[in-house]
Each structure stands twice: as C-alpha cells, then as structure tokens.
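Protein chain data
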Amino acid sequence: MPPEIIIAHISSLSVFIPLCFYFFIKGKRTKDLNLLLVLLLVSMVCDGLSLLLLQYSINNLPIGNFYFLAQFSILYYLFYTHLSRPRAMQLIYILFVFLCIVNLVFYQGFNHFNTYSNVATGIILIGLALSYFLTLLREMPTVYVYRLPFLWISFATLTYYGGNFFLFLLGDYLSSEFGGLQAIVWILHNFLNIVKNILFAIGIWQTCRSVKLST
C-alpha cells in the first residue's frame, strides 16, 4: 500500500482520539464541545466516504469541498462566540459564503479542489485564532490559560490552517508542474490533520480538568 494511502487512513482514524475523550472522560459538555462533536462526526463521515470513493477510483473532491466549508462554518461560529465583533464577523461570513458559492459554481467547480476558497478560509481562521490569543493576553481570564479548552481548539485551528496555507495556495501549481509532489502535499495535509485532532483531544481533556479543579 502506498505511504500516502497509509497516512490517509491514519488521518481518518485520528478523529477517534478526540471522540473517545468526549465520550469516555467525565466532564461538563459545554456548548463548545458539543459543536466540536458535530465537527468530528462530520469529519468521520466525510473521511469514510472519501476513502471509499478513492478505493473505487471515484473522484472524492466534492466531499472534500463540502467538508472544508462545513469545518470552516463550525470553527467560525466557535470564534464568533468568543470574540466581541458580531456585526463584522457576520458580514465576513456572508461575503465568504457568497464568494465560495461563486467559485464553486462558476470557476473551479464541484469536481476540482477549491483552492481559492480554502486559501480564504485559511486567512480568515488564522486571523481569528491570532485575535483570540491577543484577547487572552489582554484580558487574562485565568492564570492557568493552558487549562482553557478553547485555547487548544484555537491552537488546533492555527496549526492546521497555518501549516496548510501554502499547500492550499500552491497545491495546484505543484501538482501540475511537479506531479510527483502531489502525494507529498497530501501526506503533509493528513499529518497536520492528525495533529489537529490530537489538539482537539487535549482541549476536551482540559474541560474535564477544569471541572475537577472547580470542585
């Protein structure tokens, strides 16, 4: 089995790490964690379908495009609830969805990896993650900021989208000009997805620790 397929399977299975933490660690099920659960379940279903289609040599990019939009929407809403810029964030989201639909319908299409939309997604979520970190530094809600579950969700977002930014930006060029690099690009993407899921699991674990500390 090619190494990129092995890494893809490991990446898909890594979603069970935070899922196990969610279901088996006793702690308060906050709104953040419930939304994170939805994201993890969507990821599990989309990864399963993508691998199934890949096995039968069927284009799985439409599923990938749907997943990236769903993941962006859930993460964006999480940041929306933690940052005090409601009107600006509502406007940004509406504009993004409009541009995403235009790109999907008129430019890159359903069966092509939507690089333009994903680059925009990366820029927006990287900006929101950095904005959240600045808010923490300014307000310092607790001395032990590393025990804040959303801090780890923000780290996961920054790691995944920061690491994948240039892959999304240059993915098409690398694939067309250097065909052999396409597998390496997706190996790096899947590795970052594994790291993202591990950071999600740490965030869920911190919720459990916070409950124990408060009692």
